Amino acid sequence: MKFFRNLRIWNFALKFNHKTVLINETIEALNISRSGTYVDATVGGGGLSCEIIKKLDDSGILVATDVDPDAVLFCSKKLKDYKNVFVFNSSFVNLDKILKTLNIELVDGIVMDLGVSSYQIDCPSRGFSYIHDAPLDMRMSKNGRSAYDIVNFLEEDKLSDLIYKYGEERFSKRISRSICLYRKKKTINTTFELSEIIKSAVPIYRKGHHAKRTFQAIRIEINSELENLKKALDISINLLKCGGRLVVISFHSLEDRIVKSKMKYWNKQCDCHRTFDICSCNKVQKAKIINKKIITASDKEISENPRSKSAKLRVCEKLI
Description:
Elements: E1 2-4, H1 23-30, E2 37-40, H2 47-54, E3 61-66, H3 69-78, E4 85-89, H4 95-101, E5 107-113, H5 118-122, H6 147-153, H7 156-167, H8 172-185, H9 191-201, H10 212-222, H11 225-239, E6 240-250, H12 253-267, E7 287-289, H13 299-304, E8 312-318
Parallel strand pairs: 2-3, 2-5, 3-4, 5-6
Antiparallel strand pairs: 1-4, 6-8, 7-8
Helix pairs in contact: 7-8, 7-10, 8-9, 11-12
């Protein structure tokens, strides 16, 4: 785990464009106390961190983390003038370990801005996008197996299951079959190669880009996004003080279902079947849901930043 204490790091030139969505709504939802301790669990381009730190006094603390080393380097430079900011290059599944190194037991708020950043999509060399021709990669951490490994070596039935499960792609079997037939002749090396293979397997009349769902599925698998989200949510709720807020922005239905389910469970006072007259589960309500209805981007924000259209914000407050 790489740690940049007090942000004393070298200068570097790095373009990291990412426009944070629902920024005002998120800051309001955190209900920030000037002397509080807050965690930006997915710092990205630092948009939320910059707004949080402005609302803290010298006794307040901001802990920021991201699995992407590019994001960490960029935000470390961006926030270098603040002495009460700590930035980690690590996954949010390690939040408890990160806070332990700072001798912090509980925090006043945690925010998660999920999914892939605009920088990662728009940077061709990262291989996230079907819009740019680049080597198949899609690794947020830049470590471990890449999209190249999944596309070229995963068995056909497992590849099909993956595309269906994480991409909600109805043509997953046809796409998987086409990929496997193609790779018998030669390896699939680039995003455009993969995109063209997918295009040959799906109907020409379908709405949206033909490769969108498959690319999403591979990216989620590579980065263990959904498994890590479940772990991070459970860790985060236990790291909050009584009255602390957990704020989560998700961008697709798979993420949002997990967040909604977790918050709904924490909000429940009883887990017994509805036919039971007397509660026997001894469940204790851990948190309350702040926004009964999900918060979405305004028409104005969507017109200025189309990527905000699918954003959903959910908030809960720790009770015990």
